[in-house]
Amino acid sequence: MGVPTLGCHCVVCESSDPHDKRLRPSLMLEYGGRTVLIDTTPDFRTQAILAKIERLDAVLYTHGHADHILGLDDIRPYNIKQRGVVRLFAAEDTLAILRRTFAYVFSGKPTDSSIPLVELQAVDGPFDLFGLRVTPVAAHHGPEPVLGYRFGKLAYLTDFSKVPENSKELLRGLDVFVLDALRHEPHPMHSTVEQSLQLVEELKPRQAWFTHICHDLGHAETNSALPDNVRLAYDGLKFEVQV
Ligand SMILES: [Zn+2]
Ligand SMILES: [Zn+2]
Ligand SMILES: [Zn+2]
């Protein structure tokens, strides 16, 4: 929902620490002159301004929930600037949600307005993207499927409640693991701080960053109770990783 959460006056929502201002979760990868995004959140335009995104080559979608897809329309300036399509990668069920949610983009009907120019590609296994090997990592988001992605020593896995054993094999030997940790209280669709700490303990990445954090978790207070190699991610966080 983002922090501050609308209408809420809890200590985190009213915190003056800039780390407690949270737009919806997303990751931007820059390599070889390319810019690849994971998800287009409803905050995408604001995030692109803040991160000074100059170009956009592809989007990898995790799943079709509103907080991960609704910013798609705002890729249009990059279509115009680059005079070309942006490639969208997602599992087949997520592509179906994109086609339905953004029917005006995929209807094929002539329009006098600009619409996102995209090329859809179904993800059903590892693939190469502009010279980088991308490995999808399937997990459960309550009763629904979700995809995480691994790039060399980096993996991003948001919105999961359970990681199946065969996917855990794809998440070993990481330098950086960015993963869902919504709050302390159990949630049917999301991993909690305690569950994500257990997963970090099991998979042993060098560094873990928790994301998809709700207003239950204050930045400074939560960080002070985490192990040295685990921290809450925050808007604008940047790091380099060998892939
Ligand atoms: Zn609040
Ligand atoms: Zn979700
Ligand atoms: Zn979400």
What can you see in these coordinates?
With 243 residues, the protein is of the alpha/beta class. Helix content is 22%, strand content 25%. The chain is built from eight helices and twelve strands. The protein has helices at 44-50, 66-69, 76-82, 92-101, 103-106, 165-168, 193-203, 219-224, and strands at residues 27-31, 34-38, 58-60, 86-90, 118-122, 127-129, 132-141, 144-151, 154-157, 176-180, 207-211, 230-232. It has a seven-stranded mixed β-sheet with strand order 6-7-8-9-10-11-12. The chain has a five-stranded mixed β-sheet with strand order 1-2-3-4-5. Strand 1 and strand 2 form a beta hairpin. The protein starts with 26 loop residues before the first strand and ends in an 11-residue tail after the last strand. 37% of the residues are buried. Residues 65, 67-68, 159, 212 line the site of one zinc ion. Residues 63, 65, 141, 159 line the site of one zinc ion (ZN).
